[in-house]
Amino acid sequence: MKESSFIIRMLENTREILPNYHDYGYVLDKILQVMQEKTECSLKFYLDSEGQEEIWTVLQEDIDVSRAQLVANIFDYIETGTITYEQNGDQQGFVIKPSLNNAVYYYPDHQVALIKLPIFQNHADYEREFILAENDQALLVFLAYVYERQKEIMKGCVTVFTDTEDGVERTKEWITQQVSREDVLLEEELKNEIYRSIDEFFNESGEFYKTYNIPYKRGILLYGPPGNGKTTLVKSIAGSIDAPIAYWQITEYTSSYSIQEVFSIVAKMAPMVLVIEDIDSMPESARSVFLNALDGATSKEGLFLIGTTNYPERIDPALINRAGRFDRAYEIKTPSLALREKYLFGKKIDRFLRKEDILYLARQTESFSVAQLNELYTSAALQWHYEQSVDLYTLIQNLKAANEKARTREWETDEYSSMGFEM
């Protein structure tokens, strides 16, 4: 790139002539001086017009493993550390981390510096992000590193996108309890079909799709009543593939902006899995943008899309009536008698119940979801723990009554069970 010639130079003007620019330029000039002294490199400023949050996500991780170095904090009397609460497996608690704001970080292997600079003005304070690199090629190599590093970071955890009033919030949730494929309570034929589709998609970067000239994109829709293992199925997928997985929570704040942002992020991470939870909750105002995003030739390349819903009747027919959006829809039903027996024996409930009692439980819980079976097991275990006996009939009837109240929304209200506050 040809070197630019500048019309106005800060060092040739005083604060009285260019007050706002002078203050702004003065800080950046001091940063460049420090970088020149410590790196002996001549760095240039670049603008990230894509808003790539991945750069800063990777930086936070790289500080922890010393891949990025703190050159200096910028202003005194501004925070240099942040308090966060982290949970990773059995390890959890408060940790103090260096602040990204008000600091200059440097990647010596890439000759790239990252800056989050606080800007102080009369009407508002804000921060601005800067990227410094020795040249264009060094920056392009660094960006390639960022996205490979991001994929590495995303493995072993689930990236969660939540649409909020302030935009897309991104968090990281570690898979603290591995869910094996054997733990997923589905009919074997259905389970095998879903896992075969997943495995072939990520086997050798989709070689099957290239061999048979099939577009490298896939979408499945999981539907059925709540509590029957759709989330467990997703967890088992996350723990059994060597690819990033992201979870997108649709809310009333989902908009054309958040849709474009999420698809822009996952396109750079592909091949990967994107789970869209409660897809029926997509606001009407955003549906056309969402459909267009699904139809985009490049936005879904390398993307395995999983949509979930408890209310298939609310799904926009356009989602599943056109090829290239959701290719298959799978109903996740309440477990059959054989699956209920498998679940109860799998929980080792025979430690305190006889086999005939377990078979009785399985027969009497015909309409129970997996979540309700789990609650039944927990209640039975608690009763056995404290009383050394289990009243199966009463437990089943109480759960059936609670389920019926939840279904019909017939809640008792009296002075002891009122929900709310008396004025």
UniProtKB/TrEMBL annotation:
Keywords: ATP-binding, Nucleotide-binding. InterPro entries: AAA+_ATPase, ATPase_AAA_core, ATPase_AAA_CS, Mitochondrial_chaperone_BCS1, P-loop_NTPase. Gene3D superfamilies: P-loop containing nucleotide triphosphate hydrolases. The keyword ATP-binding applies. Coiled coil: none annotated. Residues 216-336 form the AAA+ ATPase domain. The keyword Nucleotide-binding applies. PANTHER family: BCS1 AAA-TYPE ATPASE. Belongs to the AAA ATPase family. BCS1 subfamily. This is ATPase YjoB.
